[in-house]
Structure formats: C-alpha cells, structure tokens
Amino acid sequence: MKEVVVIGAGLTGLTAAWNLRKQGKDLLLLEQSGRIGGVINSVRENGFLYEEGPNSGVVGNVEVVRLFNDLAADCELELANHHVKRRFVLKNGRWQPLPGGLKAAVTTPLFTWKDKFRILLEPFRPAGKNPHETLAGLVRRRMGNSFLNYAVDPFIIGVYAGDPNRLVPKYALPKLYNLEQQYGSFIGGTVKKQFQSKTEEEKQVNRSVFSVKGGLSGLTRALEKRIGKERIQCNCRQIAVQKIATGYAVTWINEAGLSETVEARNVISTVGAHQLGSLLPFLGKPQLDKITSLHYTRVLEVVLGFKEWKGFPLNGFGGLIPFVEKRDLLGVLFMSSLFSDRAPEGGALFSVFMGGVRRQDIFEMTDRQATEVLEREFPQLMQLDHFRPDLFKIIRHYHAIPQYEADSGERFEAIRQVEEEFPGLILGGNLRDGIGMADRIQQGKLLSEAIL
Ligand SMILES: Cc1cc2nc3c(=O)[nH]c(=O)nc-3n(C[C@H](O)[C@H](O)[C@H](O)COP(=O)(O)OP(=O)(O)OC[C@H]3O[C@@H](n4cnc5c(N)ncnc54)[C@H](O)[C@@H]3O)c2cc1C
What we know:
binds flavin-adenine dinucleotide; alpha/beta; protoporphyrinogen ix oxidase, domain 3; FAD/NAD(P)-binding domain; Polyamine Oxidase, Chain A, domain 2; seven-stranded mixed beta sheet
C-alpha cells in the first residue's frame, strides 16, 4: 500500500512527486515511456545543444522561484540574456521589433494610427460581460484590429500555436481576463498592480525567460534525483486504475512484460486528457467525454543548426509570424542568442515552429514536403543566400498544446465532480491550470497540497 501513486513523469508529475517527497510521503511515480521528462528533452549533437519540446520557460509565479532555489545544488538556472527583450513580428515580409516603450509604440509600423489613438481610450472602455467572449473579440473591442493581428495573434501563436478566434481568455489567459474584470482596463490594471506590495519572493517573479545550464532536461533530472530513482518506474504499459475499498488499485505491464499491481490511498494523474479513458476505465462516459474532448493542436518543431551564421543579425528572442501574413511558418526562436553553449562559436541554433490550430495542413505534410517549405521560407525570412544547415531535425508533437476554448468551463466542472465522487483521485496535468512550464510547476505544488 502506497500513500500516493503519481502517473506521468513529465514536469507536472515530477514536481508533484518532489513536493510530496519533501513532506516525507511514500509514493510511486509511473511513466509509460522509456524516460522521464515528458515533452522536455534536451539533446547534444554535432556541437549543438537543442530542445525537442519547450525551449524556455518564464519566471511567472513564486513556485518557479522556490523550485530553482531548492534545486540549486543539482541544476543551474540560466536566465536569457538581454537580447530576450527584442522580439520581432513579421509585417509585409519584414521583421519589425515589437515596441517595448511609448516612443516605439507611437512610431512602429505594426499598428494603424487609428488604433494607436484608440489605445489611449482603452482605460475608459467598459468591461465585457460575456465570460465566453473569444480573445479576438476582447482585443478588438478594447484595442483594435491591428493590435489583434500584430501583437496578440503572434503572441498566441508563440504560446498556444492557437487561434484567438477560438481561445477564451477566461480560461486561456485568466490574468488578462481578470485585469479587465477586476480593474476595468488592461492598462489601468497593469499600472495599479505595479504599486501593490510584494513579498521578497514575489519580487523575484519578474517574468524573466529561463532555461537550465546544459538544457531543460537538467531540471527534470534534478527532480528525478530528489524524488529518488527507486520511486520512479518507466516503461509501464497499459496502466489502469480501479476503485477498491481502501482506495485504488493501479495495474500495469512492466518492462519485463509482467503484470504488476500496487494499492494506493491516492492517485494523481498528470497525463493528457486523451489518455484518461484507458487509465480510468471506471469513469462514466458522459463525465469522461467532457474532459477527453479537450482539443490538442499538433505542432511540427524543426531544429536548425549552422556552424557558421551569416544571415539576419540574431540580436533578439526570435520572430513570430501573424496569421494575416499568410506564411507557412509560425515562428523562429533564436536559441543561440538567448542561452550559452547552444551552437559552436560563430554559429547559430534555431527552433522553428510549423502547424498549429490554423495550419494542420502543414502538420500533415511528409518530412520531404515540410523540408521544401523550410528551404523556401527560411532563407527568405532569415536573409540567407543558401540553406545548408549542419543540424536538421523534424520533431512531430501529436498532442502538443491543449486549447482552452469555450468548453473549458464544462471540463473543469466535470473534473471537480470526478474528484468529489472519488476521494483521493486527482486529475492534474495540462487539461487545467494553464499550459506553460511555470503553470505546470505551480500545479505540481497544488496537486501535492490536495493530497497533504
Ligand atoms: C512543442 C512544445 C513546445 C512548448 N514550448 C513551451 C515553451 O517554450 N515554454 C513553456 O513554458 N511551455 C512550453 N510548452 C508547454 C510545456 O512544455 C508543457 O506545459 C509541460 O512541459 C507539460 O508537462 P506535463 O508534465 O504536464 O506533460 P507532459 O510533458 O506531456 O508529460 C506527461 C507524461 O505522462 C506520460 N503518460 C501519458 N500517458 C500515460 C499513461 N497512460 N500512463 C503513464 N504515463 C503516461 C507521458 O509519457 C509523459 O511523460 C511546450 C509544449 C510543447 C509540446
């Protein structure tokens, strides 16, 4: 009998397990694949250090600060260098820096003059009343179409690979939604929040962009070490949970092909919504359907490494491409300009994103077709004479990013009902509480508190 079985050894499961271990809980962490980390996987090859999943996180809440403070002896936080502040957005085929201050906001060609004036009146517009209003509707109403197309749309592409016409801010961007609901305005709310008193830890929540020296896998390895490898089992196939009188029985087929069972008072799931049907066969279909219907977009991530770089000057975070520009790439991250040790001296490393909610046709392309798209688009966008990368990897993410759309309220309610009906069963993971790494770290803490 274990106190807790955690299922899924991605960042959420690892953080939850580590928080439970800190409180001395007896637990087992089960993972279906052959390694821990989930979508996080850092790889060294041919002089480059690249990420196969997320490339960087944001210090967006105190749990991220605490995590890195606690793990300092085993993993070294690396904050992105000053280039991170320069972000490019494509307009009419040219990269334009996203304005960082008032002067730049007035002179930028990204927004129309009408919308630049319109923004001055943003604090005086009434708050919306429809909790299911889409992000596109909210931004158009408060800031105008050019802000939607050339600021918010690229931001949403960068975070969700999503569509502002489908994402609902109440669920997808709750901080933004609450600015309008609580303070009546984005600008007014942001200013007022800056004057609120903060603890020392809260002051460190400065939205810096982070990675880890040696790549993000350093973080998941450090968590694995702190949890204890003996408490983690990989290669567990066909995991299924059953309700029993004393709690739950968790059964799986181990690496040797043998069936194993462990009983637990509590089970925390951190797997994707699409995995829950087979994991929790005792859940009723109507309840389950409201959770598993969560839409995950597919994303194609292409890693490009050049030992010698002679193209566009890489003094920035990267470039995002608004949907209205009608290009075949979503964006390009300049990884070697942000973090150390990513490419040989004088070289460059990029993560290029393709596909997403509005370009599933790109995801369906063969590798050859996707390569042809890159051969055409990348040199043009990055001012290269020819396309001869020294590192070229195509990574397909079939369930990349969950889209928090209008059905999210029903999903959250179904999760609440399941947890109420089955005490000790907790449904975590990216089906709720946000999609970024900082959200996952924060949820890991919340999941452990729910058990404690
Ligand atoms: C391509 C991509 C790019 C991203 N970029 C960023 C970024 O730049 N910044 C950022 O903050 N966030 C980014 N994210 C989001 C971030 O990576 C995730 O939110 C986070 O890493 C997810 O962690 P997780 O543990 O919730 O899920 P996962 O990493 O998916 O882990 C879930 C684990 O559960 C396991 N599992 C699944 N089913 C079962 C089962 N039935 N039994 C047992 N185990 C199972 C899986 O094998 C996996 O190991 C990105 C995500 C993707 C896919």
